[in-house]
UniProtKB/TrEMBL annotation:
Origin species: Candidatus Sungiibacteriota bacterium
One MF annotation (Gene Ontology) recorded for this entry: structural constituent of ribosome
Domain of life: Bacteria
Listed SUPFAM superfamilies: Ribosomal protein S2
Name this polypeptide is given: Small ribosomal subunit protein uS2
Keyword Ribosomal protein: yes
Keyword Cell wall biogenesis/degradation: no
Stretches the record annotates as Disordered: 247-267
Length: 267
C-alpha cells in the first residue's frame, strides 16, 4: 500500500509537470532570441537552437519558477511587499493587473532614477500627489482662480502619470519583480545597491547572474509575460492568506489567554 501511494504521488507530480510544460510552451515562454544575441551565462538554460532561434529549456523554467514562487510566498507570508516593474509596452497591462490583484505597488511608466536609492525624495513626490487629491476631494481648490486650478491640475496629472503606481510604496520593498532586466537595468542596479532581492524573467539575451531568483523565459511575448505574472501573483496571494491566517490564530490565542487571566482574577 505504501508503495502504491508513493507511485500514485509520483504519477500526479509527473502529470502536473507535463501540464505545466505544455502551458509554458503554449504561452511561448520557451522562445528566445537569435543565437547571436545569446548571453554566455544563459547557455545552461538553453535546450537547443532552431532556425537560428534559441529555445529555452522549459524544465529549467519550471524548476526556477517554483523557486521564485516559494520565495515570493514567503515574502508575503511575513507581511512583506513586492514592487512590480515592467516598463515595456508588452508588459504594462500584465504588470498592472498583477499589482492590482496583489495590492502591491508597480512601475509601468519610466523608471524614476533614485526610486530605491533616494526613496525619501521620491516618497515626497507621492505625498504631494496625494495631498492634491485630498484638496480636490475637500473642494479646497475652489478658492483659487481658474488659471491657478488649471496649473495645479497639470501638476497633479504629471505626478499621477509618474508616481500613480507607487502610492502603496510606503517603505522600501522586500522584493522587486522585473519583467525585462535589460530594458529596466537601472531598476536592477538600484535593487542590488539596496540589497533588495530580485525576481526576474531572464531571456536568452540576459545576464542572469545579478538576479537572485531568475526565471528562464521569453520576456517579450505578451502571453508569456501574462503567464509568469499570474503565477507570481498567485504565489504572493497565497503568502498573504498565510499571513492572515497566522494573524487570526495569534489573535484567537491572545483573546483566549486574556479571557483565562480575567477568569482567574474573578473572585
Amino acid at each position: 500500500m505504501i508503495w502504491t501511494d508513493e507511485a500514485d504521488r509520483e504519477l500526479k507530480v509527473a502529470d502536473a509537470l507535463q501540464d505545466e510544460i505544455q502551458a509554458l510552451m503554449k504561452a511561448g515562454a520557451h522562445i528566445g532570441h537569435v543565437k547571436s544575441k545569446t548571453h554566455p551565462a544563459m547557455r545552461p538554460f538553453i535546450f537547443t537552437t532552431r532556425n537560428n532561434i534559441e529555445i529555452i529549456d522549459v524544465l529549467k523554467t519550471a524548476e526556477y519558477l517554483a523557486k521564485a514562487e516559494t520565495f515570493l510566498r514567503s515574502v508575503a507570508a511575513r507581511g512583506g511587499m513586492a514592487l512590480w516593474v515592467g516598463t515595456k509596452p508588452s508588459a504594462r497591462q500584465a504588470v498592472e493587473g498583477a499589482a492590482a490583484a496583489t495590492n502591491m505597488p508597480h512601475v509601468t511608466g519610466r523608471w524614476i532614477g533614485g526610486l530605491l536609492t533616494n526613496f525619501r525624495v521620491i516618497s515626497r513626490q507621492v505625498a504631494e500627489m496625494e495631498d492634491i487629491e485630498k484638496r480636490k476631494a475637500n473642494r479646497d481648490l475652489e478658492k483659487y482662480t481658474k488659471q491657478e486650478r488649471a496649473r495645479i491640475d497639470d501638476k497633479y496629472q504629471s505626478l499621477l502619470k509618474v508616481y500613480g503606481g507607487l502610492r502603496l510604496l510606503r517603505r522600501l520593498p522586500d522584493a522587486v519583480i522585473i519583467i525585462d532586466t535589460v530594458h529596466d537595468h537601472i531598476a536592477v542596479g538600484e535593487a542590488r545597491r539596496m540589497k533588495i532581492p530580485i525576481v526576474a524573467l531572464v531571456d536568452t539575451n540576459t545576464d542572469p547572474r545579478p538576479i537572485q531568483y531568475p526565471v528562464p523565459s521569453n520576456d517579450d511575448v505578451r502571453l508569456a509575460v501574462q503567464y509568469m505574472t499570474h503565477r507570481m501573483a498567485e504565489a504572493l496571494k497565497l503568502g498573504v492568506e498565510e499571513a492572515t491566517r497566522a494573524a487570526a490564530t495569534a489573535k484567537a490565542e491572545k483573546d483566549k489567554a486574556e479571557a483565562a487571566t480575567a477568569e482567574e482574577k474573578t473572585p
